[in-house]
Amino acid sequence: MSEIIIYGKSTCPHTKRALAAHPQARFVDILASEANLEEMLKLSGGLRRIPVIVRDGEASVGFKRGS
Predict the structure, then answer these.
(1) 18-32 pLDDT, tens per residue?
(2) Number of folded domains in the chain?
(3) Strands of 58-61's sheet, edge to edge?
(4) CATH assignment of the domain containing 12
């Protein structure tokens, strides 16, 4: 099974839903450091939307039910 990484904010309801759907995911708080935010922006192509979910090396922006 591949690692899932979720970039977001702990207070964001969309991030919370993504984390609930993927309890095994590693959470990266973009407010914890400038480096975390910069990495998220690189993965999202500069979009400031969260969560950014990385699975199998592919990043997706936002969380849709079940994704």
Answers:
(1) 999 999 999 999 999
(2) 1
(3) 26-29, 4-8, 52-55, 58-61
(4) 3.40.30.10
